[in-house]
Amino acid sequence: MSKNNGKQFLEGDLLGSQHMTEQEEEKLQRSLTNRHIQMIAIGGAIGTGLFMGSGKTLSVSGTSIVLTYLIIGFFFFFVMRAMGELLLANTNFKTFADFATAYLGPWAGFFLGWSYWCNWIITAIADVIVIGGYMQFWYPDLPVWIPAFTSLAILTILNFVAVRLFGELEFWFSLIKITAIILFILAGIYLIGTGFTSPNGVKASMSHLFETESMFPYGVTGFLAGFQIAIFAFVGIELVGTTAAETKDPHTSLPKAINSIPLRILLFYVGALVCIIAVTSWAKVSPEKSPFVEMFTLVGLPIAAGLINFVVATSALSSANSGIFATSRMLYGLALDNDAPKSFSKLSKRKVPIRGLVFSMACVTVGTSILFIVPNVMTAFTIISALTSILCIFTFMLIVLSYIYYRKKSPELHIQSKYKMPGGLFMAWMTMLFLVFTIVILALDHDTLIALECSPIWFIGLFIAYKYKKKKMLQLDILKAQKVDYI
């Protein structure tokens, strides 16, 4: 038997069938049912990036934004399939960091775990920031920081309760979002079918999708610029991977959730965006506001706009709630691997990683203070979402790379797998190339380039922390060896 960074693995079992140590006996509960998992997966696919960020992407990409979402969704689906095969090959894995550690080495688990934690911290910050913006729809003079910090306090209290409450919250949050988007699309179809003409003279028509220069209004540069916010819209799609340790029947729930991703993309992303473009015309969409709310405002239906604003506000709450859940669970996993302070592995009586939750919420609170520096909601949102996109891409890269090494080191497990990734290694490499391509795209835009230039600070910090951690572990091993020799 060999040890790997605090975990014990059977010899020859590279996937890491874990033998729980004494510290790991305090486990997360498998309280999430199939109903919860399906809704968490759907909720992860409908986030702030779609409701708030699609206005900006439409303004720079025109109708080609539909193509952007299809391309990103296509490749991200294969990332999720790779993740699904790895997680189901061994349900002892609690997070992506576990299989990254097993296949790429301790450094990968450390970098992936902390980067994913940071990813969701930043995402939660972005979500609570836009909640402040949504509230200004009803209360224009309300300072954005008031609803932002209020929502943080509410979500913190709710997450102190049992895991099942998180599942229930996400179930109802997601149900609201699904119902609203379906009604939104149906309303759009009705307006298009009746040839509705808005007060500003725009007639609802599918022809808006094919207007002259509407596809690439700012050329290839504009098309590529839309990728950053669009990528951010998909952050959360991988959330089912963090629920694996708390899912009652992962072999049934995870495949169902992952396999439904293409349908969700077509319905929630493509369907909704087509309706917005057809009803309002892309040129009328404001980059500073949610196009979902603006569509009904432009067509002269303020009551409907208010209802949609309520939905997008709950969507942001849902996404922030998911982020809080994900960060606390990631810290829990990192602590068990000795990649984070052991105190983060302590669970409350309700089996909630309470200390990790408190630490994560403190970080989100500090980050939300950007509203005092950059009071403009969309500016703050753009800065934050660009950083999130970079960390999301990095996370997905390591997931795919873990799959590639899994195929190389454990071919027998792939053969036995009942949930194989379509296209296998070929699609894994194609997906990896696409992810590299997205990094190049981020360098083309001024705002995202700033975030890209700042991101090395995080990775350099992680490198220093990892080296320090290795040094401490080595010192502990030497100390233990000396004690044994003394005895």
What do these coordinates show?
The chain is built from 20 helices and two strands. It is mostly helical. The protein has one domain: Amino acid/polyamine transporter I. Keywords: Amino-acid transport, Cell membrane, Membrane, Transmembrane, Transmembrane helix, Transport. Its main location: membrane. This is Gamma-aminobutyrate permease. One of its GO terms (cellular component) is plasma membrane.
Helix content: 55-70%
The CATH homology group name = Amino acid/polyamine transporter I
How many DSSP E strands? 2
| Domain module count | 1
Q: Can you tell me the CATH topology?
A: Amino acid/polyamine transporter I
Write the H/E string, N to C: EEHHHHHHHHHHHHHHHHHHHH
Shape: globular
CATH class, named: Mainly Alpha
> What value does the Rg take, in angstroms?
23 Å
Mean pLDDT: 79
Strand line-up in the sheet with most strands: 1-2
* Binned strand content: under 5%
Helix/strand structural class: mainly alpha
Helical segment tally?
20
First-last Cα distance:
23 Å
So, CATH architecture? Up-down Bundle
Mind summarizing the main beta sheet?
2 strands, antiparallel
Keywords: Amino-acid transport, Cell membrane, Membrane, Transmembrane, Transmembrane helix, Transport
Protein name: Gamma-aminobutyrate permease
InterPro entries: AA-permease/SLC12A_dom (IPR004841)
Membrane topology: Multi-pass membrane protein
